[in-house]
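Structure in, sequence out. Go:
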């Protein structure tokens, strides 16, 4: 018997691991070289993983739902007499995307957290955190205060980031070294609410895209101090212009929505307030100002909320933006987006108004520092020259990272944006 391991290959794009969504083969199956054997979910997309050689499936090294580091064995093949190919596996094929936040998935849960022990001969404890340790400044400070050596912890956060929970766990679990007289701490167990005996319940594993969305949202809320500001805009002129553009687009086979106009107005405002088109490098403690405009937009799909990205949106016309939005949104719903189409956004727009709603507090797509929300259009009576007249109004919100953006700056940003969206014809001047 000639047994060979089939490893999770290097998928690229900085991906270090993936969650096994499902096996595409079963024990005893005969497979050919380059045949997909599993679907694996990364923080970028779901990909089909092929086997680099032919053989018979003898053993699974992982179960569905497991997180597998790259270059780790997934299954075992018996290649005896199979004419195994020596060629490397074909690049994984993207099938269904996930949100592109700019960080990798959590490290495999199977890796035990190392003990953080003190050195009796150390002149200073805990030692200064190594520059290679991924952790926010707040987490590093907490580790120092708790006398925990952060260098000895295996982070459970995204990309192996050491979290506050890791530090607290090391401290309360007795692995963190504490100074004499320091009171011990324990964290209460977190258990799901249990219904009354006999109550109808169903438990479903949180896996796949929904799990990735949950991880990214939790990470963003933990790291970013959010605040949201709302403004109401008179979009009567925009309503008329979009109606004319819609008719023109139909002649060219393109569906024109309000989103391209909002993107154009936002880009013009970003040029005036560049701190909104930026990101924060938490480890380097640097602000990265983007000189390009890649606009992410939230797309509601059967798999969950995804964020396709329009690259260089400032260089495209309303009609070109409309066509690209339709294409990306359609392929997002069908699970056919490419990896590159889910990353690189400098700011995101969420159009909640397409399904209803007048106001919300969206979560920032970290490491971006802002997200613009647009809501439904309503008719509102307004007193003009002693008479009530109806005008079209739409609410907009800007949710910002308070570490970089102050409330007054956000208010000025929204005022400038609303002025543009209320006079959409002036956008032509901004684009010249």
């Amino acid at each position: 018997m000639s047994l060979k391991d089939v490893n999770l290959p290097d998928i690229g794009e900085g991906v270090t691991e993936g969650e096994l969504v499902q096996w595409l083969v079963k024990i005893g199956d005969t497979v050919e070289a380059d045949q997909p054997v599993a679907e694996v979910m990364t923080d970028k997309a779901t990909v089909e993983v092929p086997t680099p050689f032919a053989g018979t499936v003898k053993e699974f090294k992982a179960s569905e739902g497991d997180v597998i580091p790259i270059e780790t064995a997934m299954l075992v093949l018996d290649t005896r007499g199979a004419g195994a190919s020596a060629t490397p596996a074909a690049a994984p094929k993207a099938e269904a995307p996930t949100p592109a936040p700019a960080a990798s998935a959590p490290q495999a849960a199977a890796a035990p957290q190392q003990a953080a022990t003190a050195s009796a001969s150390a002149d200073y404890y805990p030692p200064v955190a190594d520059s290679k340790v991924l952790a926010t400044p707040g987490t590093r400070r907490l580790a120092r205060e708790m006398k925990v050596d952060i260098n000895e912890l295996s982070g459970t956060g995204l990309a192996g980031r050491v979290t506050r929970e890791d530090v607290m766990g090391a401290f309360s679990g007795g692995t963190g070294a504490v100074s004499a007289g320091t009171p011990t701490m324990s964290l209460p167990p977190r258990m799901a609410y249990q219904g009354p005996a006999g109550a109808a319940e169903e438990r479903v594993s949180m896996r796949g895209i929904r799990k990735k969305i949950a991880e990214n949202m939790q990470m963003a809320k933990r790291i970013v101090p959010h605040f949201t500001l709302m403004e109401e805009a008179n979009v009567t002129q925009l309503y008329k212009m979009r109606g004319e553009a819609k008719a023109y687009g139909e002649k060219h086979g393109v569906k024109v929505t309000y989103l391209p106009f909002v993107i154009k107005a936002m880009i013009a405002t970003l040029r005036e307030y560049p701190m909104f088109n930026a990101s924060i490098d938490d480890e380097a403690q640097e602000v990265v100002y983007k000189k390009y405009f890649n606009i992410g937009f939230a797309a509601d799909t059967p798999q969950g909320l995804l964020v396709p990205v329009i690259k260089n949106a400032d260089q495209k016309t309303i009609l070109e933006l409309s066509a690209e939005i339709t294409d990306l949104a359609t392929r997002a719903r069908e699970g056919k987006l490419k990896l590159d189409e889910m990353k690189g956004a400098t700011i995101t727009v969420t159009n909640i108004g397409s399904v209803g709603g007048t106001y919300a507090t969206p979560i920032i797509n970290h490491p971006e520092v802002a997200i613009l929300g647009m809501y439904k259009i309503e008719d509102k009576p307004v007193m003009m020259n002693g008479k009530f007249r109806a005008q079209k109004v739409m609410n907009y919100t800007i949710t910002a990272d308070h570490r970089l953006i102050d409330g007054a700056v956000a208010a000025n940003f929204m005022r400038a944006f609303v002025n543009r969206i209320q006079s959409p014809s002036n956008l032509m001047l901004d684009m010249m």
